[in-house]
Amino acid sequence: MQQRWFTLALLTLIAGAWSLALGVLGVWLIMETHAGVLSSTWVSMSAGLVSLCAAQLVFLMCVVDRVFPRPHGLIRVLLESGNALILAGSTLVLIPAALIASV
After folding, report:
1. What DSSP string describes 49-89?
2. 40 conformational bin, left if phi > 0, alpha if psi -120 to 50, beta if neither
3. What per-residue confidence (pLDDT) applies to 48?
4. Which of 1, 52, 79, 101 has its CA 20 to 30 A from that of 95?
5. Predicted confidence (pLDDT) per residue in 7-40, tens digit
6. Residue 49 and residue 59: Cα distance in Å, rounded?
7. Could you tell me which of 39, 31, 35, 24 has the C-alpha nearest to residue 97?
8. Where are the domains of the chain?
9. pTM to 2 decimals?
């Protein structure tokens, strides 16, 4: 029991830090003005959204699924699939926008 608690606490700390770093990166990409390829609003907004969605997915998959092992199925599916769809859509916007901005 002690080892399980330690493993859960360690995973929570590492995944929480990872998620926080991705979230801060996403907010920075959205809020600040940048030079180069990131100077395009489409690129910086979609890159920030990708980073924010990735932060939420990391937190949901690594922390929430272990701390709350039996959530309501519909809520879990809606949150995870909604984040995954936004992540995929933002990535589909980011790739062509970055290619166009770099030309």
Report:
1. HHHHHHHHHHHIIIIIHHHSSS--HHHHHHHHHHHHHHHHH
2. beta
3. 93
4. 79
5. 889 999 999 999 999 999 999 999 988 888 888 8
6. 15
7. 39
8. 2-102
9. 0.84
